[in-house]
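Extended Data, panel c. Modelled sequence:
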Amino acid sequence: MFSPEIVRAFAIVLAVIGAIFLSLGAQFQNDAVTKHHAPSRPKPGSLSLKQIADLLRRPRWLTGTSFLVLAILFQLSALALAPLIVVQPIGAIALIMTSILNARIYRVRLNKSTFIAIALTTLGVGGFVAVAASSAVAVEMSNEKLLQVVGILFVLLLMFGLLFWRSKGKVSALQYIFGAGVLYGFVASLAKVVIQRILQEDYDLLTLLALISLVGATVLGGWFVQNAYASGPPDLVIAGLTVIDPAVAVMIGIVILGEAEASSLGQVFSYVLAGTIAVSGVLALNKFHPQLTEKGNSEPTD
């Protein structure tokens, strides 16, 4: 009924809307975890079961969760219409919106370097998505590809479990962010796999295994994110996720799923260039954002 170009354009619009909801969800949840909206300040890098249970009763945290649910719904809809490597990088838009929104709430004036970083991120993501939209191909989700994705995820879960056990609970915000970014990259990949296999009417045990793995990675990644919120502003969390999550998902989409197998050498070079620009923008934002460099602790405006 509609041309592939129109369908992919619509998927990009859905992903952009999802990124906006992701930004709002991150901001609201971060505010609920911090001392401004939670009854007690969590210890840096850790949340007790009592504090997590308290968050479930906080209206602001629940509002943020509602935004995140909407973000997931729009993201899944986009993944159903376009290849993973087209949709997933668009989540970096959440970083831009979160930076601006959080600066306004905490009354922090963004400097020139911050705006340049935002421009670089926008340029890189836009370039990557433009190339991917014209060259990425939809692929059949075979049993072999599904087993590879799930197998790698299980190995990573074992590694994370061992590392967190050896750390004895002394985990930094950046470590939580890294873990969440890796897990969410697999969440996006597994979501794409499950959606595609359902469309292919592959209702088997492997599809169920992928669905269970998807839910498990989502829950654990969410716990990592909540602990990261306890130690820093949402900009830092979103910055980490917008580097690691898309990088992992795109790597899976290219290496395992084969979504870029029809790309020319010039398009591959464009992928690398655009990705480098986007990552440099994110890293620059993390380095030059006033709230991170000046340790701004202003009270948020209501």
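The mean pLDDT is 80. This feature is highlighted in the accompanying rendering.
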